[in-house]
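User: Run a structure prediction on this.
Assistant: Running it now.
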Amino acid sequence: MKKRKSTFSRLFLTVILIFVIFGGYIWHSIYTPIDEKDAQEISFIIKSGTSARNIAQGLKDNGLIRSTSSFYSYIRLTGEDKNITAGRFMLKKSMNIPEIIDTITVAAASESTVTVQEGLTIREIDDKLTAQGLILDGEFEAAVKDFNNYESYPFIDKNTVSSLEFPLEGYLYPDTYFVDGVEFDSNELITKMLGNFKTKFSDLQPLFDAQDRSLHEILTMASILQKEVRTPKDFNTVSGILWKRLDSGWHIGADATIIYVTGRQKITAEDLELDSPYNTRLHTGMPPGPISNPDKNHIKASITPEDSDYWYYLTTLDTGEVIYARTNDEQNVNKAKYLY
């Protein structure tokens, strides 16, 4: 009997000891920072809809917490898992789990994300920012029109772009940007986009320097390609066709330039007669400026056109496949087959 009691006592003490040790570990992992002396900021991004478990794993992967289970248990017990805010947060290894949670559950502590897809116009960027509640309708457009810091961006020809309705069209690089969601500033986003353009374009600088067209012309053609062609394998071929038309005194003949003016995806007979320099079916030469903000792939294709025997092309309505033709008669046959 004594032996049984002794065994039970040892078992009981062992269980208590385990709980004490385990409880101490949990307490330590929750309230003790990874390194209380490390104040270096670490960028941590939380995308909308990310679960608390995935956030815990991300924090662990970034060396910000010791235990995913401790983080998950704590945030669930406190109910703060319902208050997690999407955005980018600057966290430190000197923060413990409660401090981290206090940060990622406060909207003012986060940077909101703005994703500008390739090919958006300045009007469309304004619409996107308005829909996200970052600006009032028209504020981004107004900031673009009021932009006057050209000395910081010598790659932009002020004399060329200043006469356009939206002077920076084509130069605002499409990408995901982190912005202050509480005190958003359109000018700050413009600065980030222009800086990003400069960085992205630097890789293409040798190719650009090897040809004799201006950057404004290159971006204008790239923006047309962005709207006209969906399949990467066709970027350079269509670029070659459009440059060939331009250099031969032909009409560029791109529907996308008309749509830029009308804002309607479907072109009417009246639209074809629209007396606008952006109507490349009516007027020869390049339109006054870009009709969207193209990405690096389309800019590169604009710089490196591919020679071919083709003068015509169309994009099928269903798959986006590009169909080529050498003559107008061939083009009419293709239109009847793929567009009507």
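Residues 11-15 have pLDDT under 50 and may be disordered.
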